[in-house]
Write a structure and sequence with these properties.
The protein is an alpha/beta fold and about 425 residues long. The protein contains 17 helices and 5 strands. A 5-stranded mixed beta sheet has the order 2-1-3-4-5, with helices on both faces. It is elongated and about 105 Å long.
Length: about 425
């Protein structure tokens, strides 16, 4: 008796393509996505974008900058990308800070004037010695730590003669002085190190902390009570908006199955008018859900909500309309509620994993970050991040608004064309 039951279940599963896809396709797709994100599909860790400003222009600072450029884990930029083929001036501390605030890079390294005079800090802290400054975007907790550690490593590999020279000064200062012969031998060894460094030979060393003095300053998110709440409110909110919109759009399928749709279309209501009404209702539903989520974040998690109302309304409306059009498209394609449930689950979870709703896009490989731009999630999250994290004005939201509006128009147009099948049946 068991075998016939199993055979019946297998036949039923084969007939239900949605359940079949959720059972076998979705796990493989999810595994592949997260394997690529966490390194299974690539041989190297994604490079950390870092901006470098050399105010000192000494031999030591130039060699440190060159060492950072040669470091395989970093993508070093000393000037912005060319505009219309015209090379841009090098970053200054002010422009580098502005670039970090704008999200161009998660960290900037500022090498101050006078660094070349005392680049190595073996001794006790000295307030008179200039320190390298890290300007960081605190939303990326990984990049500043990576850059800070690599600075110490690069200092040892690119400045061996400077490190040895500074060490001899400390020996001379704290050990009671060196004889003339000892100084001559140290100077001879330093000359050998300089020759090796100038000839391109590398000197290996372990990255012990504190070789060069570094201070850090957060330039984004430093005054926020709970800075990551806004990101997760937008990321999780958009994903559930997609589920809500696709479920609400399924009312079309229910009406078609019950015959209500035929009776509505036999009146003066056209299919275009009906779908616009559905789009409006679903958009209001999605926007209300988004408002509730952010109000909950404000009440419970101290999200700074009220000072960002204009930007929230702009992004909320655009996101709500786009997800409503997405839901109508899925409903128009599917024949039954069961198909809609399976297809929407498959598509929404894939979009959410690639688009940043499940894992921040800035921690993904570059190829995955670009792939995320084909999803609603990525554009919506980027817009909300500009508002709540970077405190940018509403005028800076035009790329996200334009893309989301274009997506909404395109998806609704396709959905309307597919829905013609209900007019001729």
């Amino acid at each position: 008796m068991i075998f016939p039951i199993v055979r019946t279940a297998v036949v039923s599963l084969r007939r239900d393509r949605g359940a079949l896809a959720l059972s076998f396709i979705l796990p493989v797709v999810f595994f592949s996505i997260f394997a690529v994100i966490f390194g299974g599909g690539r041989a190297a860790t994604p490079k950390v974008q870092v901006l470098v400003v050399d105010e000192d222009h000494s031999r030591a600072s130039q060699r440190l900058v060159q060492g950072l450029k040669e470091e395989g884990s970093l993508a070093v930029k000393t000037r912005p990308e060319p505009i219309k083929g015209a090379e841009q001036p090098e970053y200054t501390p002010a422009t580098a800070e502005a670039a970090v605030k704008a999200g161009t890079a998660p960290v900037a390294v500022i090498i101050p004037h006078g660094f070349g005079e005392n680049p190595i800090s073996f001794g006790p802290p000295d307030a008179s010695h200039p320190k390298i400054q890290l300007l960081e975007d605190s939303s990326d907790v990984v990049a500043p730590q990576v850059v800070s550690g690599l600075l110490q490593k690069v200092a040892m590999t690119s400045l061996p003669d400077v490190m040895a020279e500074q060490g001899s000064k400390y020996i001379d200062q704290f050990a009671g002085g060196l004889t003339r012969e000892q100084r001559d031998r140290i100077e001879q060894s330093l000359g050998y190190l300089r020759e090796r460094q100038d000839s391109g030979s590398s000197t290996s060393g372990s990255a012990n902390g504190g070789i060069i003095a570094v201070t850090s300053r957060a330039v984004v998110g430093q005054n926020k009570n709970n800075p990551m709440v806004s990101f997760y409110a937008a990321a999780i909110g958009v994903m559930f908006l997609l589920f809500t919109a696709s479920g609400a759009a399924g009312a079309l399928l229910d009406e078609a199955e019950s015959g209500t749709l035929d009776r509505v279309l036999s009146s003066r209501v056209t299919m275009t008018t009906l779908m616009l009404g559905k789009l409006t209702f679903n958009s209001l539903l999605a926007f209300s859900q988004l408002v509730l989520m952010f109000l909950w974040g404000w009440a419970v998690f101290k999200l700074d909500f009220w000072s960002h109302i204009p930007g929230f309304i702009v992004m909320g409306v655009c996101t709500a309309v786009a997800v409503a059009a997405f839901g109508l498209l899925l409903a128009s394609i599917c024949r039954t509620r069961a198909q809609l449930g399976a297809l929407s689950t498959l598509v929404i979870l894939i979009m959410s994993s690639i688009g940043g709703s499940m894992f921040p896009r800035f921690l993904m490989p570059e190829a995955m970050q670009k792939a995320g731009l084909f999803t609603l999630n990525a554009w919506a999250i980027d817009g909300f991040t500009k508002i709540f994290w970077r405190d940018e004005p509403v005028s800076h939201l035009w790329p996200q608004v334009l893309v989301l509006a274009g997506i909404a128009v395109a998806l609704f147009t396709i959905a309307r064309r597919v829905a013609r099948r209900w007019e001729y049946t």
